[in-house]
């Protein structure tokens, strides 16, 4: 137990280093995501400008083609309505113009085909990037939902572990009270033994010494029996407490190791998903940025919450270990005390009737002290509970209130289940007396079980 207590700070430092490393990896992943967005925006802007430029060139080529066709039709109309003399004059220019028109038309068609091919390629690349971006967004959404579910499960596990630690703490406190009562009883018996020893020394050598020696032997046997009983109970309490603490610490360390492994897996999965994400279009950039920022903020908040809960659990473990060490130290000191305890010397009896009267008085005083010890123990426990409830345990009261509310909810669900209705019906008045169900709980129970007799509570 002490070795585990000394290793606790090293484990805490290792956890802080691991959390710091995960935080640095998240910062790097966020920086890479920002650079990837900037590059994606620049690439999409360049592609859009290229598409606009090619579309402008294509429209200009179509306009030139239309203008040339209209000019050719005009020239053909003039040639058909002119005289033969004018026709002869226009033969030579018409042939040259037709050749020029055909050549220009072929050139513009070739340019148009090239521009259309480039525009088609750019459009296909843009559509491909859009599809990849949509797929990456779907994968990222699934990963974020899975991480949120894992965080909720881990938080529930940690809450259950903290509740169990609180229960074990209360058990340790009750054992401490029992041990204190046993120690007080042992001190009282030691005092009575010392008193009887002094009386024996005063009556030593007087008449009827055999009876006094027999009574002394009986007292010694009773004292040894009480010592053995105290030693056995103390050993059993310490063994049970040690086993319980070792089990709790081992379980806590397993949960911390599982939590650390799950944090590593989630961080690596987030880094891989950010590194393998393809280029997105301008239209999807805003949606991707908002979703990613929100997911990262939620993950960071969950990480901070888990770190705080981990720190509280470690502090609780340190407190329990300190209490165990203090309990062992006090028990060793209590076993060594009592040997030097003395009682004020009383007048020695001078005759046999006085000795017998003194023996009877001692036996009655032992019986009376035992009964007073039991009553004092009860009053001490009651006083401690009242003083602790009034002065210094608001958190314990809050936890007990929460547990009582949870117990009410569980019992209501148990009574509403389809189990043995006779057992539930017989158990319901006792539970209502202990837990004081409110009107809503009673209505729900009687509605679910219409065959039960409705009583006034």
Descriptive report:
There is one protein chain. The protein contains eight helices and no strands. It has helices at 2-81, 84-203, 209-275, 282-336, 352-392, 394-415, 421-435, 439-448. Helix content is 90%, strand content 0%. The chain folds into two domains: 2-75 and 121-392, no CATH class; 393-457, no CATH class. With 457 residues, it is mostly helical. It starts with a helix and ends in a 9-residue tail after the last helix.
Strand tally is 0
N- to C-terminal separation?
Answer: 51 Å
Net shape: elongated
**With helices defined by DSSP (H or I, 4 residues minimum), what is the helix count?**
8
Radius of gyration over all CA atoms, rounded? 47 Å
- The averaged pLDDT comes out at 67
SSE-based structural type:
mainly alpha
How many individual domains?
2
User: What is the succession of H and E elements?
Assistant: HHHHHHHH
Please bin the fraction of helical residues: over 70%
Q: Name the beta content range.
A: under 5%
Unreliable spans are: 1-6, 82-92, 277-289, 334-346, 389-399
For the sheet with most strands, the description reads:
none
Coiled coil: 130-269, 296-330
InterPro entries: GRIP_dom
Keywords: Coiled coil
Biased composition (Acidic residues): 1-12
